[in-house]
Specification:
Number of helices: 10
Protein name: J domain-containing protein
CATH class of the largest domain: Mainly Alpha
Number of domains: 4
Pfam family, one: DnaJ
Keywords: Chaperone
Largest sheet: 4 strands, mixed
Distance between the termini: 82 Å
Organism: Henosepilachna vigintioctopunctata
CATH architecture of the largest domain: Orthogonal Bundle
Number of strands: 15
Shape: elongated
CATH superfamily of the largest domain: DnaJ domain
GO molecular function: protein-folding chaperone binding; unfolded protein binding
Radius of gyration: 32 Å
Length: about 350
């Protein structure tokens, strides 16, 4: 049985991100090797930091919750890709320093206020704080969200000052409202200025959300266009068909296909794509591509009929792109196969 990271941090599996940070903060200060002079302090401290390194990352935590420590460190195969094995970098003080901003178990950020370094003072005796690097998060959006736009709520956890002197910090939650414009492109950066951790010696970092498109069951987005692939039979490819499309804005449209469908054929429906950000409410196009399913078997009569159609097409001077003759022959054969009693009376 592998390591139980929840047990190391002494928290239940239902803990929130805030619970995980609070548990790590307390245990890391308690078991810091400089503070706890015991032979196994370094080993315990390293396990605590490794547990936070796993559970503090939503992706690693999800893998651990499903596959345990063995799956996390061995890698997990999926139907689309292989999730690489996780290996702790082995430097618990690096994890500690990234969380606390210092290696010392005693400073707890107060020394910067009681004895501020000269480098951080101006002539007005105010802190000239250096700004920390931005904190970037992916923001995965569905095509529905991008199509209609709106506001998306995201919860973040940050250290904030809890006293007037701005010397003590605690972990708090904050809800950020992210504006989503119709047609927003993937890779768009949405910046929230100075929403990172508050620190006596540094300006808070900017929090940046970078948009990504979530995979859709029907459509693939290419710039402002939507691409969908439809499977058709050989009969439909030669004689035509009707494609039913359930659009992102909850409409149903039926598109007749009257041309012969080959591998390069693409039906373009103008104005049924994604909104164009710079020209809203204009929209891109819907492009329908086709995958042709060939039959596994053809009866002899069908082979002879097709052979006859192709011979007549050649005699008429038609090449592979001129299909009207074949269509007429196939349709005529269908009519002849209908019994007299089933035929409609003449008009």
């Amino acid at each position: 049985m592998g390591i139980d990271y929840y047990g190391i941090l002494q928290i239940p599996r239902t803990s929130t991100t805030l619970d995980i940070k609070k548990a790590y903060r307390g245990l890391a200060l308690e078991f810091h090797p400089e503070r706890l002079q015991q032979s196994n302090a370094q080993e315990v401290f390293s396990l605590i930091c490794e547990a936070y390194d796993v559970l503090g990352d939503p992706f690693r935590r999800a893998i651990f919750d499903q596959f345990g420590e063995e799956g996390l460190k061995a890698g997990v195969p999926t139907k689309d890709a292989f999730i690489q094995a996780y290996h702790y970098h082995g430097d618990p003080l690096l994890t500690y320093r990234e969380f606390f901003g210092t290696d010392s178990p005693y400073a707890d950020l107060l020394d910067y206020v009681k004895n501020p370094p000269v480098a951080y003072e101006t002539v007005e005796n105010k802190a000239a704080k250096e700004k920390r690097p931005p904190i970037k998060h992916p923001l995965v959006l569905t095509l529905h969200e991008i199509f209609f736009g709106g506001v998306k709520k995201m919860k973040i956890h940050r250290l904030t000052f809890v006293d007037e002197k701005q010397t003590t910090t605690e972990i708090t939650e904050k809800i950020l409202s992210i504006p989503i414009k119709p047609g927003m492109k993937p890779g768009t950066e949405i910046v929230f200025f100075k929403e990172g951790d508050q620190h006596p010696a540094h300006e808070p970092a900017d929090v940046i959300f970078i948009t990504e498109d979530r995979e859709h069951e029907t459509f693939v987005r290419e710039e402002n266009d939507l691409i969908m692939t439809v499977k058709v039979s050989l009969e439909e490819a030669l004689l035509g068909t009707i494609v039913t499309v359930n659009t992102i804005d909850h409409r149903t449209i039926r598109i007749p296909i009257t041309d012969v469908i080959d591998y390069d054929y693409e039906k373009i429906v103008e104005g049924e794509g994604m909104p164009i950000l710079e020209k809203y409410p204009e929209k891109g196009d819907l492009k329908i591509r086709f995958s042709i399913c060939f039959p596994n078997y053809l009866p002899k009569a069908s082979r002879e009929l097709l052979a006859k159609g192709f011979r007549l097409a050649k005699l008429g001077g038609s090449d592979c792109k001129h299909h009207e003759t074949i269509n007429k022959i196939v349709l005529a054969d269908k009519i002849l196969r209908v019994g007299h009693e089933e035929r409609l009376p003449p008009i």
